[in-house]
Amino acid sequence: MEMNRGVVGRRVASVIGHLLLIPLGYLAAFALRFDLPLPRGVWPMYWATLLYLLPIRMGLFLGFGLHRGWWRHAGISDLVALLKAVTLSSGIFLAGLYVLGQLAGFPRSILLLDWGVAMMVFGGGRLVVRTLREGALIGWGAASGTPAVIIGAGEGGERLIRQCRRTDDGGLRPVALVDDDPGKIGMSLHGVPVVGPTDDLQKVVKRSGARLVVIAIPSATRAEMQRLVQQCIATNVEFKIIPSWRELMDGRAKLGQIRNVKIEDLLGRQPVELDPAPVRSDLQDKVVLITGGAGSIGSELARQVAGFAPRRVVLVDQAESPLYFVHLEISQAHREIQLYPVVADINDEARLERVFSEHRPDYVFHAAAYKHVPLMEQNVVEAVRNNVLGTLNVAECASRHGARKFVLISTDKAVNPSSVMGATKRVAERVVLGWPGLARSRTAFRAVRFGNVLGSDGSVVPLFERQLAAGGPLTVTHPEVTRYFMTIPEAVQLVLQAAAMEETAGHIAMLDMGEPVRITDLAENLIRLSGLEPYRDIQIAFCGLRPGEKLHEELTSAVEATVPTPVDKIRVIRTDETDAGLLRMGVDRLMAALALSSADELRGAICGLVPESVPPLRSTRTPAEADGVEEGAPGDERARRQQGRSR
Fold it and tell me: Which end of the chain is more exposed for a tag (fewer CB within 10 A), N or C?
C-alpha cells in the first residue's frame, strides 16, 4: 500500500508540474514574439487561446504517458514520446483555432515559438534533472570510487560506464579505456578517454593510478580472453569482468555488476540464443518428472523447467539432503507451481510404479546415473544396475503410464566407450531407443548427449580449486588430455530445446560442445586467475590416465552420422542399430550376469551389446589411488555416495 501511494503521489505531482509548465511555456512564446512587458491587447489573446491549448496538450501528455516517466531516468523513448505529443498538440491547437474562427489576427510565429519552447522546457527539463542525478557526467563526484581501467570501448564498456555514472555508491570510477580498434583510440565514452590498445594496458594502469581493471568484452573468443587475462595479471592489480549476456538474461546477474573472472570465462563459447517459445509450448501446464533431480543437471533442469509454467514438477532422487535444498530453493522461487520431492531409488520398481501412478507425468527427464569413470571401473555391478536396469525401469514406467515424452540425459563417453560408465550409458541409449516394448508405446523416446559440465558435483574445476587451496599440486592425468566442456545452464537450455524438437524423436541429439579444452591449459589458467604462476608457485603433477579414460573424447562413432536440425547447436545422430531381438538377447545376458553379481560376466555382456567399445581392463588401482582430474576426485564421491543417482 505504501508503495502504491508513493507511485500515485509521484504521478499527481508530475501532472501538476505539467499543468503549471504548459502555461508558462506558452507565455514564454508570447514574450519572445512581443517582448516583455506584453502589450495590453495581447493578454486577452493569450488567455483566450490558452483555454484551448492547455487541455489539448495536457490530454496528449497523459495519452503518451509522459506523467508516468521519471525525469531522472529519462531516455530516448521519453524524448520521442514528448516530440510526438508536442507536435500533435500544436497541430490540433492550430486546427482548433481555424475551426473556431480565432486564427484571424493570431501571430503564426507563436505556434512555432510555442513548439520550440515546449520541447526546450519539457525535454530540456528532463535532461537537466537526469544530468543533476548523474553528476559524474559533468565531472561531479569524480573523486569517489575505485579508479578503474575498462578493457573494451564497445557496448559492454558503454553500459558499464553509464551504470557507474548512475549509481552514487562510490564503487567504481572509470578513468581510462583501452580498445584494439584503432578508430576508437583518441575518442571518449561518457567522458572517459580511450587511451590506447590493450597491449598498452600495463602502462595505462601505471600512468592512471588505477587500482582495478575490468574486462568488458562479452564477445571475446577463448584466445582473446586468455590473452586479456594474461595482460591483466601482468598489471599486478585486481581485475574483474562484467557478466555475460547469458547471466543477465537468466537473471543471475544485473547490469553494472562486476565479478571475479572464472574459468568458464576462458572457454570462449558463444552465448546460446534460443527461441523459448517451443519449449514453453512443450512444458506449460504439464506434469514434469525429473530423475536425479538433486544432481547438477537434474536440479538445473528443475530450475529452468519451473520457469516455463508447468503445472507440477516431481523431483526423484535418493539423495535426501540435496533433494531437500533443491526443493526449498525452487519452491520459494516458484510458489505458483506444485513441486513434489520424492526420495526413491530408480531400481525399486514398486516404488517407481507408485510415483508414476500418483503423478502421471507428461514429460520425463531421466538424469539419474552413476557418472564417475574410475569409480565405476571398480563397481561394475552397480554401474550396470543403475545406468542400464534403472534406465529401463524408468522408461517402462513412463511408457505404461502414458508419458508423452521421455528424455535420456547421456554423455559423449558413450561414443566408442573405453570405460564401464561410458558403455553402460551407450547400452542405456540403445534400450531407450530400441527396446521392443518401448518402441510400440505412445511415448516419444529420445536421448541427448553432451560432454563435461563445468561446476558439476565432483568435476574438474572444484577439484582443482580444492587442490589450489591446499597449496597444490594440481593433478592432471596426461599433459595432452582434452575434454569438451559447457556450463550447466547452457547444457540444460540445449537439452530443453532438443526435447521440444520433433526432429529428435526416436533419435540421439548431440549438443554442439565447441572446441575441446586441454586440461593442462585449464589448470594453468586457474592458477593464474588466483594470482599465482604455474610450475613456480603451484605445481601441476601428471599422474597418468586412469582406468577407462581416453586421451581425447569423441562426438560420434564410425557407425554414426549426424544431420543438422533447425537449431545450429543441435544435431541428430543417425545410426544403424541391430534388431530388437538381438538387443533383448544382449540385455537378458546382462541381467543374468547382474543377478550373479559377476563383474567379468558383465564386462563381456557389455562388450556384446556395444561392439565398438574398447573392452575395459580391470583396474589395478583403488579409486583413492586413481585420484585425478577429468571426472573428479573419488574421495569426493565417497562423501557423496548417497547422491550417486544424481547426474
Answer: N
Q: How many folded domains does the chain comprise?
A: 3
Q: Which residues of the chain have pLDDT under 50?
A: 1-3, 136-142, 169, 616-647
**Which amino acid, one-letter code, is at 284?**
Q
Q: What pLDDT does 291 receive?
A: 97
For residue 633, what pLDDT is reported? 33
Instruction: Please report the pLDDT score of residue 640 as a whole number.
Output: 33
Helices of type H across 445-487: 460-469
Same domain, 318 and 223: no
Say what the pLDDT of residue 273 is: 65
CA distances to 183, 383, 475 from 631, rounded to whole Å, are: 46, 15, 12
Closest CA to 523 of 555, 570, 481, 561: 481
What sign for the dihedral angle of Cα 143, 144, 145, 150? negative
Residue 286 shares a structural domain with residue 205: no
Q: Do 163 and 194 belong together in one domain?
A: yes
Please give the Cα distance from 328 to 303 (Å, whole number). Answer: 11
Q: Which of 233, 261, 289 is the last residue of a domain?
A: 261
Q: Are 121 and 43 contained in the same domain?
A: yes
Residue 323: how many CA atoms within 13 Å on its side-chain side?
25
DSSP class of residue 262?
A: -
Strand arrangement of the beta sheet that strand 188-189 belongs to:
188-189, 192-196, 172-178, 146-151, 212-215, 238-241
Among residues 550, 571, 549, 551, the alpha carbon closest in space to that of 561 is found at 571
Cα–Cα distance, 329 to 321 (Å, whole number)? 13
Q: Which of 553, 378, 371 is nearest to 457 (CA)?
A: 371
Q: Could you tell me the residue range of the domain that residue 37 belongs to?
A: 2-133
pLDDT at 14: 72
Looking at residue 246, its pLDDT comes to 57
Residue 139: what pLDDT?
47
SS3 405: strand
Which pTM value belongs to this model?
0.69
Cα(308)–Cα(348) distance, rounded to whole angstroms? 30
- CATH, residue 323: 3.40.50.720
